[in-house]
Hints:
Layout: E1 6-12, H1 17-32, E2 35-41, H2 44-48, H3 57-64, H4 67-80, H5 83-98, H6 105-114, H7 131-142, E3 153-157, E4 163-167, H8 177-191
Parallel strand pairs: 1-2
Antiparallel strand pairs: 1-3, 3-4
Helix pairs in contact: 1-8, 4-5, 5-6
Amino acid sequence: MSESRTTADFWFDPLCPWAWMTSRWMLEVEKVRPVDVRWKVMSLAVLNEDKLDELPERYRELLATAWGPVRVVIAAKELHGDEYVGKLYTALGTRFHNNGEAATRETVVAALEDVGLPAALADYADQDVYDTQLRASHKEGIDKVGQDVGTPVIAVPGADGDEVAFFGPVVTPTPRGEAAARLWDGTLLVASTPGFYEIKRTRTAAPSFE
Length: 210
């Protein structure tokens, strides 16, 4: 009898390179553990909209471009279905992070075409039509882990059936094969421990987009 599969909810912002690394790890986890990823959006722009004055200028410049891509993803979800969220994320992330393409309308249109979606969806980058849905999805994820984290957020049923939610893990390069499985098992182990909150060390390497 095949092992029953578990759904892991994964909240991402398309512009975050570290979330991108973690998302590629989750695709590896799907291959080596009975896990299916359900992709959901959160927004760095929403997360930081009340503290822009406290942020470095470089990060404020990033956030100024952050609304567009995530708005396009939520529009694709609302108009074409949940199955396009992960597909479009992969197309956008590959162009943004692996290929180094800027978060312009042209790049977004190309990503939409990559997954067979109409180019007109790019118009939603500058519209707040689905911001209510975007904020609701963001809130669903961030409420599970608190305001002092970022993207990604992962939520999954633990061994006892209770939900386990956490930010991260932050990792580079993307673990593959059995290394991906070990990181998944270990992450669930520590995140499921009552009272456990944080393991952290200084990042000494930039994201490696293999």
